[in-house]
Sequence to fold (660 residues):
Amino acid sequence: MIPSSKNLIHTNYRPDIDGLRAFSVFFVIGYHAFPEIFKAGFIGVDIFFVISGYLISSIIIGNLKNNSFSFLDFYIRRIRRIFPALILVLVVCFVFGWFSLFPIELKQLGKHIAGSAGFISNFILWNESGYFDNAASTKPMLHIWSLGIEEQFYFIWPLILWLIFKIRINFLLSIIFLIIVSFSFNVYEAKIDKVATFYSPLTRFWELLVGGLLAIIKDGYKGSINSKLNSNFLSILGVGLILLAFFFINDESAYPGVLALFPVIGSFFLILAGNNSIFNQTILSNKVLVWFGLISFPLYLWHWPLISFARIVESDFPNENYRLISIVISIFLSWVTYKFLEKPIRYKKSKLIPATLVALMIGIGFTGLHSYKNDGLPNRSYVSNFNEENFKMAFLFSEDDPISHKKCMDTYGLKDFIRYCNLTSSEKAKIALIGDSHARALYDGLAFYLKKYNQNLLNLGGRLFLDVETYPIGDKKEIEVYKGGIRATQFVLQEPSIETVVMVSKGHYLTDDNWVFKLINNQNLKDKKQVWEIAMRKTLDSAIENNKEVVFVIDNPSLGFDPKLCIYGRPFSKNNSIKKSCTIPKSKYENESKIYRKLVMSILDDYPSVKVFDAAEHLCDEKKCYGMLNGKILYRDNDHLSLEGGKLISKELIKLLNLN
Fold:
């Protein structure tokens, strides 16, 4: 609960609410540590929002009615409540990152620390989500998005309540109206952009507002609700709704959306039931659960960085034993934080404490921003001696320069969005490289060799195949990418100045269940192999009909590990020396790509005029496929080639092009 202040009135302490808070943090930790079991554990955040909205709104409304509300006191209390534990976690994460992270990783961490300190983490994560974004598990500050939502709400909520009170509008009707507005945004956005719906304050505020509605109801209708019969019915209903959410929602659901009603209304009923219900008295008020509820905020802050840093350092999701140990460590750290930092600061009356906390938060925010602006501080002692060339190869992201992209688009008179547009000169090219991010990764290496023949190269794309929806489930930005990719392929195949087309596409669309891969004109066809065959044949047929010479590139192997480990050992890693064998068994690649290669080869057999280039033949020998060769790093991540990797295969690829 929030501490006392002479100007503020508080709700009576309810241990069952701390018990409910404990369950919510258990859900979240379970989802982060054991996602295969706690598939809907993220609903814990929704429960947090309702609890927070109820407690804070109860305090504000009570003080407004007693003419004792002070904006200054309210925000000082928020600072005392939130800042101590958050500052500690941010500082510890930055220090650990300083000694353990590569520059590009510390750069990202710095940005996220700055966003966390400014309580805008949700906006940063929202803008990052997409095809090239690092995996969520490599972001130690990922979970702070919810704190950003909460504090954005409390930045405006006291003022809204104060205005409602001053102009004497009905509290109940006003809050219901605001809930309807926010919930409507949530339902609308959930259908078109899962990422925006998850991180946007507009689509999340209704959950905190439901807590505010609960505060109004509890304040005005106590007698009619808190009978024993009503309380037990409400608590059973609340538990049932939360359990339905837990068992039937998963991370592929259109969430929050309408489905968020289950945990939100379930929490609403549980709190509304009060202390009279049997479940609230015997389960939620249990001393062990209450203790976990008291440390729930630092526990929420500590648990994820421990798992995420292990994921980064070991370049793999930590094993089950480590995850269990990390939970135990986070519980201990949370207890220490609560007992020796949170409580003393929260209850100490010194007026210097809030100002000091604000100064410290600003300091850590600017520290993170400094590391972000300075490329992850590459001059740190343990990274300063790294091989600079390989360093760039390992961290170079194949994204377009905005100025060059615009010049490329203007050269061909292209107006609608296309993700990739690169051209080696201002003149139109005879050779075009089309496809997805694997084509973009190949562009720089191929352009390097074509320049020796005074040949320009156009790279245009986002996806390769015509008439296919290809995007990660729920990612609106990537929907635009596939649409732009179709436009790019259509344009290249119809552009008279282009004579030769090099086609590249990732093969994982066939087997990755996290990706939508279906025909635009036949949504009922679920077999991805059939979808691929129809789309590939349509694309090849269109190229041949337009008299294009076609070279089809069989996709390169995926490594299955972080190629950065081939360059540098990493402190704190159990394998802290440089990876001795930067290879995978060729048999592993052949097994993983069996479905893809068999399908593509069978289709190409029907197109004798299409030249075939097998990237694996130049990245593998009889026994191994290489992530590093002759001291040069060939990949920038698990499956995208580096500049050196692109050069290696382009040296052979140009032999299939008419360069005379």
